[in-house]
Amino acid sequence: MEVILREDIEKLGARGEVVKVAAGYARNFLLPKRLAVMATDSNKKIIEQERHAHLRKDAKLQSEAADLSKLLNGVSVTIKQKAGENDQLFGSIGTKDIAEALALKNFTIDRRKVQLEEPIKQLGEFKVPVRLHRDVTAEITVVVAKEE
User: H-helix or E-strand containing 92?
Assistant: First the structure.
């Protein structure tokens, strides 16, 4: 069955693409969740108009993300945490902690945009990427200090 995707779906395709999927997958998942529409001529015209509107909106979001990236690059946040011997933390620093520290500096960043491979468990200084847009990434410095 051929459908036109209305959203980017990982391992399937990008928005606006015509893809062939199993009939059950389309009928039970993609169509009810409005992630895709049937591939008819009228739907193709509608999706093409939506795609142009999405491209304009995406270009605007990308330029805003680039501006925010210029402000965010080089920003340093300090997080104080209790630590034991050998600079080992009690607990760890995660994406939520970093997003809250950025919020204190008046940067409203969703914690899912902070690209932390694994939680920070040591004292020190770490470079953490923040993905603001699929093409725009800023890098911040996270300083983990010992709480007195």
Answer: strand 88-93
Token readout for 139 is 């890098």
Q: How many angstroms separate the CA atoms of 133 and 64, rounded?
A: 9
78/124 Cα distance (integer angstroms): 10
Q: What is the pTM of this model?
A: 0.67
How much helix, strand and coil, in percent to the nearest 5, is found in the chain? 40, 35, 30
Contact 24, 3 (CB under 8 A): no
Residue 115: C-alpha distances to residues 71, 119, 125, 148 (Å): 18, 10, 16, 29
* Amino acid at the residue 53: A
Angle (nearest 5°) at CA 138 between 93 and 52? 125
Which of 120, 112, 115, 134 is closest to 79 using CA atoms?
120
- The model's pLDDT over 74-115, given as tens digits with 9 standing for 90+, comes to 889 999 998 888 878 888 999 999 999 999 999 888 989 999
